[in-house]
């Protein structure tokens, strides 16, 4: 745990120059707009340790699958979002010496991420080329013009003599992935140009053997500066416009670079891409930098209008929740239904920029509250559109129906650990459950009765084929699965997975009773199939321990050595850095909630006593070594009345990256876990539930706080809920009147 | 299943030219002498599909470990025996046209492996260079001079005009492993020479990052021929002596190549290697080819003298058992205690030439019967000498004591599937059990009371730390293990593993009571430790099903869908080629005996009824998709009186490779499984057991056979057991008189 930035309500700022934290700082100052994004690396280059990552949404590469021994059913490739051609590069020389903060130590250094406006600024002074200059680097990734990234650099001559400046505005295709096998590069250059104030480079992903698409990407940068154009260079793997000029002592120079990026995701030929780049750059060239910034800033204001959370009495918590929403919205705001939310978004290579079940389990519940319903609906459509891939995945396993992938870009599985790929099939249930969540929250039944019914039916077909009937127990079972607690693998009868399987089958049967005849005809679910599903629902085995009256995570769990985690010496934690894998597997320690995840999904279906007993039992074994863990425990703790525990668990997820809790923020941010802090405040502290279409609240105020206030989107309305020491105040900010339930009392809001 | 060779008692012969079976033929005609060996590839080169493999015992490379996602405790590298510099190469040109049977189709083609003498001969006629020639290629890998390989080529001009011949005797370092990552090559050349009738090449394995040894290998070939020396070539990666001459119509030419190989395993410097090569080649050059062959042939005769098995009435079975013993002895005959028996020996790349638990479980019981006790003792010493590696493996898992590796060259684990590496720990018990086997069979207690006591103690320390106490069942358990049946992974309480764990602890306690004080002092087993071990022995959990009165393979096994394998459509077999891994895992199908393996180890500890019930139960689910499986089932079938079943199961392993049962002989031979046919005849059909130092037999004669006869080494004696329709005749061939038990009757042999 290490806090690298100062605390402020709307800014993430540091004035400390600390190269040892550079990767952490780069992660935290990442910017993105769903379509593209980058880490907060230094555009002028940095010869010390850095991860220069620029990523394009939906542009990925099917890399060779690396496994120990092949197993039938493995996917052909491991998909990953590759590091894009670096269009950010701006090489700066002062009196012949290249700016490189690994070589010149800066003073008055400052990084500032403005979360309200979506702007990252970096300023510092530095002795270079025999003089002293002040630099300011500003950048934004436009949330209104998805192709656009703006950079503005100001240079002040703080010395006593003239400074000769040379600046190269570069697009550089000589980039690597850190996770590449044998240092492979992934981009072939198709065209390159450098002409006065423009550079342009068109590249294409390397050919692969897997019949998956190759991507063509065009980039065009325009420079505006008061320096003079010196020359253009078209190098083997890069293009440059070079500018030069002198800044007198006390004077300043300005340099702007605006880059637009268009890809074959949106255009069907290389010429269509370059034509579009030309058109768009002409239009944007007419605008000033501030003119480009204005709509971007306005859009951020509108996002915050719908979603801001205010916390009084805990500035760290205030900053944390805004940072989390800022990075979540940067990663995805539902503008492109072909995109999704990778666990690290555009902030690092890990998890390969792909889609996980995190989206349905942790993100959709938040987007439902903080954005228009279309955002969540687009995420549901993403899966619907990938049904063909899910058929392939099920077929790979020799099973009927659809198995949505653990990791994917196009619906086809692209991950290769058998215990995950083949076995962590609860994901299929989570994807079904998200359909229910959306429908229950929004009241919009158009998805579930059409596309949703199809998704549910195919998932149910998978479940019905994946279960087996145990003659010895006269029950249906799911053997060989891995639950959300990945510290146990390949178990029999994971309670959570069995529960979701049973629930999905029943929900599908319910929905099938309601669909239009033409939908039913298309789905073609036979009476035999329905009978079989009903039989499974009625006879599904769910582990239960009659002594402890709890739900064992899986068969065999109660036979473990049940020593609480509190008895493990602290120098052995986190377990995943200190224990061998087999020791972890046979231990009772829980990486993230499994039974607790089920209690959250079906929070109204269990009694307070049941929830309390299970929480008490599992909490003592849970190490929360997944970033997705603590927030769910916090909600259950709040639900059963463990308020202090709920707050303690909330704190683990609220500032996970800002405080580098898991010592891995350097790799990128935990985008999908960032949702946890919002869920804890809204579902946990405020007790928000939607029951039969009605909003319910049962709030409490964390002891340390003076108040908290959040805005929530619900069925064409914006509500504002404020909880302080005097109680709860709920306002209708916009939309039609509505009756809500506050701690058991009906309240009509107008 | 496909029989590619003719049946004959002492020969494996074919006269069919079938390029589509070439790899199978190469595997089957492999030759080796424990120190080095090669597949029966064509030395003149073959531009069609071939696997040119030459391998050196104990020379290996630690390749990069390829895994999906890293797990704590994984080894640093994946070890493999690399394809050696190819010293067999002899390029032949006739009137300028190169001999290459992928291009010229041969007639009168014949491959002949003479198992009695250890000679592989290949003859054919071919139209080439406008004429017709007859070729004979003969080779042997000397079992008396471990460095020596001899090749003899005879060329007869069958045409009507003179044939101009050019022959290059080559040592070629431009070799690949088929399993290499990204086509890496592993050999760097240190020195090369070609001088008249000698070529010499010294090479060294590539540098690796793992602190494991690099190997230096020197090779020197000498040519004797009636052709004239033309020139020498020293190429970038090879060296050649080139000879030329003309063969008149009806005349013949001869060409001999003898190669010696010395490595840094035996010499500590490059100069020591080359000096030895010079000395040895001088000595061998004085000998004729037949002079070199003579002691080799004599040694094979002596091996057969001790071990031959004769079967009357089933020529296929006769050929099968001899082939199995021939290839087993070629792979290992106990001459070098630093070497071991890789599952594919010197016949292919798969299994990487490394040591597996196959050695202890399947090979030691055979060597005890067919060779001097030193052979088995050397195999025990191999493990003792690798104790340091076993300490490292246990420590990698955070555990006490010694964990012998699943796959190794030097004692350190070099395999990287977590479910195997971390979990298939029964191997530790098998290695302990082999100590008992050796001691019980030979009566020699010198190993078990010294080195063996140390091995047993450290294995017991591992077990005692690996078990956990289950508070819910009040029993010691082993969770997260994989048994010999690798079609179930990461299970709890594998009956076989738990049984071996308990047995090892008790056996170790027994042995510790008998060791000398200075041994006890060195081992330093405290009374606390002994108490703990005793506690585990007394309270070890062993799965038992009271309904079916059988031992469930593991917890959860009885909950599976227990549909017999006979109900699986035959086009889905073998499962490992048709079913996804997860489907296999959750099925009840058994790859190789797990409970049955335990019944074999402790065959006298269970009643006939117990064995029968378990055999009946498991046989219906067993698919025998490991080559190690059927032979053990055969022994248990014989033991419980299922004679026909025993014979049927025997047949699956007796001609496994000759008939390409598993459709994978092309990859190499199943060396360690070849032991199965001997075990089935001796332990199964003849019912041989050693009880309290006494030999017991309870033979039956397979219905199809007229008789079988085998020789067996037992405590300084050679016995011959003959079973025919009139009964059993047991003779003492050499050694002191001995009393044996034949079907319950004591018999004194003189």
Automatic annotation (TrEMBL), chains A, B:
MF (Gene Ontology): carbohydrate binding; glycosyltransferase activity; hydrolase activity, hydrolyzing O-glycosyl compounds
Domain Glycoside hydrolase family 65 N-terminal: 13-265
Cited Gene3D superfamilies: 1.50.10.10, Glycoside hydrolase, family 65, N-terminal domain, Maltose phosphorylase, domain 3
Residues at the catalytic site: 486
Species per Swiss-Prot/TrEMBL record: Lactobacillus rodentium
Lineage of the species this protein comes from: Bacteria, Bacillati, Bacillota, Bacilli, Lactobacillales
One annotated GO biological process: carbohydrate metabolic process
Domain Glycoside hydrolase family 65 C-terminal residues, every copy: 688-749
Recorded family membership: Belongs to the glycosyl hydrolase 65 family.
Pfam families: Glyco_hydro_65C, Glyco_hydro_65m, Glyco_hydro_65N
Name recorded for this polypeptide: Maltose phosphorylase
Sequence ranges assigned to domain Glycoside hydrolase family 65 central catalytic in this UniProt record: 322-678
Chain positions recorded as substrate binding sites: 357-358, 591-592
